[in-house]
Structures are given as C-alpha cells and as structure tokens.
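Input sequence (530 aa), recorded before submission:
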Amino acid sequence: MPEQVPVLVAGGGPSGLAVAVELGRAGLRCLVIEPRETVGTDRPRAKTTSVRTMELLRRWGLADRVRDAAPLPVSYAQDVVFCTAVTGREITRFPNAFGLFAHRRDEFAECGQQIPQPAVEEVLREAAAELPSVELRVGHRVTGLVDGEDGARVEIAGPDGSRYVIEAGYVIGCDGANGVSRAAIGARFSGRSGELPNLNITFRAPELTEEALCTRGVHYWVLGPEGGGIVGRMDLDGTWWAIAHGVDVRADAVDPAALVRRMIGRELDVEVLATDPWAARMLLVDRYRGERVFLVGDAAHLNPPWGGHGYNTAIGDAVNLAWKLAAVLRGWAGPALLDSYEAERRQVAEQTIADATTQETRLAWAYAHADIDADTPAGSARRAEVAEALAAKRVEFHSLGLVLGYHYADSPVVVDDGSPVPKHEPSSYHGSARPGARLPHRWLPDGSSLYDHLGPGFTLLRLDGTADVTPFAREAETRRVPLTVLDPPGVPDPDPYRARLLLVRPDQHIAWRGDDAVDAAAVLDTVLGR
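Predicted structure, token format:
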C-alpha cells in the first residue's frame, strides 16, 4: 500500500470506477479502495443505463463492450408494458422506454441499454485494470478520513485486519450513503423517504416461456386490486427480477415465490435466488466538497428508482469532477474550476430527485385506479380515470428532456451569452447550443458521430470553416490547455447553433459560443476557473 497518492477514490462501484477511468485516461495516478472482492450477480441493482451514460461510455471506447456484456440486447424489446399479469392482458404500453431504440437516432450518439449494474461494473473494472496509472485494491475499506487544506489523511482496513494510513492529495468519496466521506466534510442529507415499502426478488422460472407472455416487453408493470409490481428479464435464459410494491417484510409474513406467481398470473415453479426489501429515499447533501474531499454519487444524493436515474446521475457526477481534477493536476486550470463541480452537479441531482419523486405519488394513483377488467365499458368514466393515471407515468419512461436536457447555464465556468435558458421539460428533449448545454449531436456523412471527433481536452468547433481561430490557439498554447480545432464535415450551417464558433468542454458541454475569437484570453480564463 503506498504511503502517498495524488488521488484516492473511496469506493469502487460504478461512480468510483468512472472517476478512475477518467483520471487514468489522462495518465493520472489514482488508488481505488473497494470493500467487495467480487461483484455480486444475484441482485441486478440498477438496470437502466441511460442514453447520456452510454454516450459517456462511448467517449471512453466502452459503449460496445457494455452492450456485449448485456444479457438482454436492445433488439429483444424496447417497450414498457402495463398489464393485469405477465401472462394476462395488456392494458397499455410505452414504446421505446428509457431511450431504447433498435436503430440509431439523430439526437444522440448512443441509445439506452438495459443491463444489470454488476455487468457494467465488471466492464469498468476491466477498463480500469488496463490503465497503468490506476490501482484497484479490493477487499479494503476506508475506515477514517480527515480532510485538510493541503490534502487528506485516509485510514484503510485490509481484508486480513491490517491497517494503513495514506496521505492523499485529493479524496473522491464514492462510498455511498454509509461511507465515511460525507461525515468527513460535515455534509448532511436532507429530504425524505418514500411511504411505499417494496421487495426486490430475483428468481428463475423455466416455465415462463416466451409463448406464455401476454406480449414482449422490457418491463411488465402489473396492476391489480391485490397489489402489483414490476417484472423483467435479467437474461434470455430464464432469470428474472421483480419488484413487489407495497410489501413490508417487517410487518407481514411474506412468501416471495407466491408474490412472483401473483404477478405472473400462473401457478408455476419459481426458484427465488435473492430478496432485498427497500423504500425509496429522496435525499440530497447540503455540500459536495470540503477542502480536498469531494462527494460523488450516492454519497451526495439518494434518488428514488423511478426512471432509473440514480446510477446514471452518479456517472455524470464522476465525469464532471474527474475531468476538472485532471485539468487542475495537470496545471492547465485553476482551483476555482473544482468549485464549479457542486454548482453544476447539485442542481442536476436536485431536479432529478424532484422529477422522480412525483412518480411514487403517480404510482399509488395508478394502483388505486387499476381495478378494471374486460367488462368495464369502453369510453366509461372508469376507463378514463385509468387512462389518466397511466398517462401520468409517461415521464418516467420517456425522460430524454431530463437525461439529455440538463444544463450548466448558471455555472461560474460557463460564459453566459444572455440567450434564454432552455426550459425544463423532462419528457421532451430539444437540443440547444446555449452555453452550459450538452453539445447537440449530429451524425457526419461518413457515419461517425460528431462526438467521436472531439478532442480529449477542449474542442473549438469552427462551424463555417472560415472563422479565425488563431487567438484561441495562441492563448491555449500559452496556458498549456489541450485544444483541438475541429472543422466538422457535413454539419449544417451555424444557424441552429447561433454562432460560428463553439468551445466544447471535455464532458461534451458547451463552455462558450461566439462569432469571433477576439476575447479568447478572457474566455479561457473563465472556463478554466482562473
């Protein structure tokens, strides 16, 4: 165990590994401390890898590896189905849920992917192991942490009871809600827990064949007067997951297999592999950093699972912080750049939690209005009530406005051009080139994505091919800022972007736009936190 490291990552789940991959690709040494020696596969945990997370994985060259590791290909199913039972009657469906499309779309470089979180972790572990500057120590746990002005003192326990003390230049707390990082900086959660108890069940049911299903779907939302839940495939070999809503294992004697049979709608053999009781939590910390300690993912926010945004928000945190930390450690950005992490990411978590929280209320409403059957007259008030309840769930499955449309317009390291800030519409994405927004995606004539041509540092997009970029190139060289000048072929005229030049950050968000480079020095000083 080293005595000193530039960066120590407490926790090697998805967010911690994402930090390590981002830093490792920049050639920066970091040590990841992870208690679990192996990644458990009996619980799927998060199942939705969003469009935006897939784009970030593509940025690392890992999108195809994640898809290859997914036991359920996108081509199998893209729709969420509401039904009376998995083998019963379909009530309604939400097509192309979670950004699942069998063919590419103009709006984004990657569609979403249904994949158990452990499978993503395995890909990220392999990717981290391929980076010479990254060291992953499994079976070890961060047990103590003291933040300081010039670094942090980290206490670590090994699997054999051994104890270590490491001095770290920076600590990235990816150790979840029960880790030590949050307390080390005096951060506190505020918010509430959901009122609906739930039970996760992983099971095998060989008799639940394709022919027995009411229809093909990626998720089955089972509604009924006796309670319901969600059922979905983990793979195509007979392993499934389920969430039984309204089930409190503390108050009732619960038979998980019986719950599964009720949601399936048939008496068949069910082998329960694992169970996990939970209630949604909607919590957000009051600060994201101390002196040299930063919080990422579940250490900073606990999201309700509706829409599958928690793990994806954590990956966004990791990329946002890690590219900035790399810039500071490489010496081409000022320390104020790190202050922008909280300013940018806390508001994203706050909005995501708020949008997802409404779905628990809508879920209870949907169950309360789900007691219809085939004899309920078409056009009746009862059917209208059910239609209204189900329509309210749309934003949970069609949330590209939330996934792609979040922005950093108010960030101190984004140059405000005075243009209107994009309106928050969680279910609809309307691309914007306003500084702070994600760069609107385009496919180029050769079939590649515009994102594939962005540089590892900042990229200056010259949309008309004629604007003088010399001031930017000169000022970037003076500041040792990695800058790629890109004249993208086949991109439409500058009108949709409302500028001839776009300065794009390493995380694919726009830092500045304009028609000339006369203010290049001031622009770079702002976006680099100088």
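Checked by second reader. The mean pLDDT is 92.
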